[in-house]
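Morning - 2-aminohexanedioic acid inputs below, output right after.
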Amino acid sequence: MNAPFKNLIAGEWVEGNSVNPNINPSNTKDVVGEYVRASKAQAEEAIAAAKAAFPAWSRSTPQERYEILKKASDEILARKDELGRLLSREEGKTLAEGVGETVRAGQIFAFFAGECLRLAGEKLASVRPGVEVDMTREPVGVVGMITPWNFPIAIPSWKIAPALAYGNTVVIKPADLVPGCSWAIVDILHRAGLPKGVLNLVMGRGSEVGQVILEHKDVDAITFTGSVPTGRKVAAAAIGGSRMKKLQLEMGGKNPLVVLDDADLKVAVEVAVNGAFFSTGQRCTASSRLIVQDGIHDKFVEACVERMKGLVIDDALKAGTHIGPVVDQSQLDNDLKYIAIAKEEGARLAFGGELLNRETPGFYLQPALFTETTNSMRISREEVFGPVANVIRVKSYDEALAIANDTEFGLSAGICTSSLKYATHFKRNSEAGMIMVNLPTAGVDYHVPFGGRKGSSYGPREQGAYAREFYTTVKTAYTFAG
Ligand code: UN1
């Protein structure tokens, strides 16, 4: 298809009402492609198409759904290098990360292809004589999806794949910054044979297209991944008035990584640097609070700084780059704002935090590590969403756990230790949805539940078989069999 890339509504590629140039953050002179923005009226047409397609799709056979999702998986995996490159070009994570995320998307479609065939119900004897009770799962209806820019292919995939597998129809609005990967996924599924209207793509701005999806009476469920402030607005719009939509929100994190005196120093440094700075720190699962025990603190900080000095921050598409640019100017401004705030609050900048010049104009930032910070500083409490982490020194495991839990977030939490006792205690007592022992807080498996507690998440988990909680609704049927 020739540029500009269009929206898919009711099985047709349609023009929008304006064009959005998709800019490469590694080289702002490079336009990845031109993507149309939908009008509000088009968002309404997409919802109507999804509603019209629902009765037939919800009754399609598991085999039909399996074949389409499997075909999509096969194509994504076959095109992993090309799609991974598109991802890295539009979002700025390294090519290895972009290809890795694309493979994950392919694996997600394969997993949910299998789930089409595995959706089971339950049958119980009733407490009344001669009565049987069946519990079955049915699709929810039209699912509206609003996806963020930081995982341009994985997040749309882990929302679209289960939605379709369980028989829902979809209207998706990807992040305006990175429409390319969602466009590619929708194109692949469309060609894989999805009936018209089952999956509709409306690219554009949240304030326009997103708002229509959130408020429309014919959208039955909303799944959103993004920031806490936007998540709160999404909840108000989706539930407010008489709307009461089913809702799933994945929002921010201020994820702790505890490093105890008995940790393997090499492992702890790799886990911390990967979790804090890879993917340019732009992960809701990033380790942003490094809570380090006294006895290992100085060695750990020194080794982290040495490791950071060896990181290559450059064009995401260049071989040898470890960390790509920040996604855009406004995110870069936000990162620099927090670096300034941390300094003002009295934190010590152990390394980094400077803007870097590279061959091409891009948003290059040296990852920043702060020490001598407390858990009450803003740098410890507010999500930066960039390559910025701070070290909090603690005396004991108990103090570390208390600080790890002292946050309004609860997505992911890690501990580096060689002690089974502390690892086990941490798994039991951490107030996060995902716990990592001697592993980075970011970078999760695709076949198990993903999600958090407290301010990080709302509603049922995403991914793995648990995704059915959001994408299906339970029906309890009673039969008097005589
Ligand atoms: C991961 O760490 O592997 O937006 C996934 C995010 C998360 C996904 C993280 N929803 O960063």
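Note: The chain has a mean pLDDT of 97.

O.
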